[in-house]
TrEMBL record:
GO MF annotation, one: enoyl-CoA hydratase activity
Biological processes, Gene Ontology terms: fatty acid metabolic process
Catalytic activity reported: a (3S)-3-hydroxyacyl-CoA = a (2E)-enoyl-CoA + H2O; a 4-saturated-(3S)-3-hydroxyacyl-CoA = a (3E)-enoyl-CoA + H2O
Name of the protein: 3-hydroxybutyryl-CoA dehydrogenase
Record site feature (Important for catalytic activity), residues: 141
Binding annotation for NAD(+): 11-16, 34, 93, 98, 120, 144, 274
Length: 283
């Protein structure tokens, strides 16, 4: 693994900042980039606060926490990813925006570098198709919040090589994750199953079957989920949920049509916790 020590992370939102945190705590060097400089500043603050919490709770020694922060470098220019061995993309869930980025990264990254995507649903094969290195493009899907959730879902595109799969699997394991492997179909494994449940929770609310509180309590206490589906949707981001549903709908048919209430909330800018309002209001 000596040659896979520098990790680039593109996107400093909730997933990118969590992935960067995981990697620096594991002793890897991280270059973190976001096109929005304020998002990058927020990411640094949230990683620093999270590491201080881990130190305060005794999960990490003070020197280990200090070293972790030293492993983080925020960069202002994509060109600096030239130094990275693996670049993990965690930007907005849009195929067009991701393709543009992959095409740029392909020109910048060293020939041996692996380009990984944290996409929730978008085809890895199609992202790989805009690069000159499709065998080195792979899905590396962390769950939210990345420092806590134990899973990494790895998605092989049509041309992903066995060597790249093995390298990314061992990287995920180094970050403490249990790995599952999915073929490249819309939503892969986890979101193929989770997102229709969340969408159905929206339909249950939309059609007046029950209140949001009863829907969430029903699924929390009735099926032992840590969060109800509407609360979880707010946590994931309603914008992200809608983008995933659109990929499922386009790829798998009308059974996966996004609920009009979910569409309306996103139209209204009610993206969930990150905006202070989604299904619920956050103070
Ligand atoms: N970094 C490090 N540690 C963190 C952290 C972070 N960002 N956030 C929380 N923690 C730690 C806390 O310090 C705490 O540690 P201790 O137990 O040692 O004190 C522990 O995690 C639990 O935190 P809290 O007590 O604050 O919160 P909680 O017990 O209510 O759990 C939760 C929070 C883990 C998010 C839990 O509610 C949960 O599991 N929710 C469901 C999450 C889920 O389903 N995620 C998957 C979404 S789907 C997805 O991600 C795929 C996709 O593509 C959309
Ligand atoms: P987010 O909105 O919190 O963050 C996205 C970040 O990407 C923002 O800071 C934005 O400024 C930045 N960005 C957008 N376009 C960019 C570009 N062209 N170049 C550089 N930075 C850019 O989103 P998120 O929830 O962190 O999701 C990021 C990715 O992770 C998405 O593909 C999403 O589907 C996936 N994902 C999300 C979750 C979740 O629960 N939210 C879970 C697993 C995977």
């Amino acid at each position: 693994m000596a040659e896979r020590e520098v990790i680039g992370v593109v996107g400093g939102g909730q997933m990118g900042s969590g992935i960067a945190q995981l990697a620096i705590v594991a002793g890897l060097h991280v270059l973190l980039y976001d096109s929005d400089s304020e998002a990058l500043a927020r990411a640094t603050n949230s990683i620093s606060a999270s590491i201080s919490r881990l130190v305060a709770k005794g999960h990490l020694s003070q020197p280990a926490g200090d070293n972790a922060m030293k492993n983080l470098k925020c960069i202002q220019n994509l060109e600096e990813f030239r130094a990275a061995d693996v670049i993990i993309e965690a930007i907005v869930e849009s195929e067009d925006v991701k393709k543009k980025l992959f095409s740029e990264l392909d020109k910048i990254a060293k020939v041996s570098a692996i380009l990984a995507s944290n996409t929730s649903s978008i085809s890895i094969t199609r992202l790989a198709s805009v690069t000159t290195r499709p065998s080195q493009v792979i899905g590396m899907h962390f769950m939210n919040p990345p420092p806590i959730m134990k899973l990494s879902e790895i998605i092989r595109g049509a041309d992903t090589s066995d060597e790249v799969y093995v390298t990314i699997k061992s990287l995920a394991e180094r970050l403490g994750k249990t790995v599952i492997c999915s073929q490249d179909y819309p939503g892969f494994i986890v979101n193929r199953i989770l997102m229709p449940m969340i969408n159905e929770a929206f339909y249950t609310l939309y059609t007046g079957v029950a209140t949001k509180e009863d829907i969430d309590t029903g699924m929390k206490l009735g099926t032992n989920h840590p969060m109800g589906p509407l609360e979880l949707a707010d946590f994931i981001g309603l914008d992200v949920c809608l983008s995933i549903m659109k990929v499922l709908h386009e790829g798998l048919g009308d059974k996966y049509s996004p609920c009009p209430l979910l569409v309306q909330y996103v139209d209204a800018g009610r993206f969930g916790r990150k905006k202070g309002i989604g299904v619920y209001l956050y103070q």
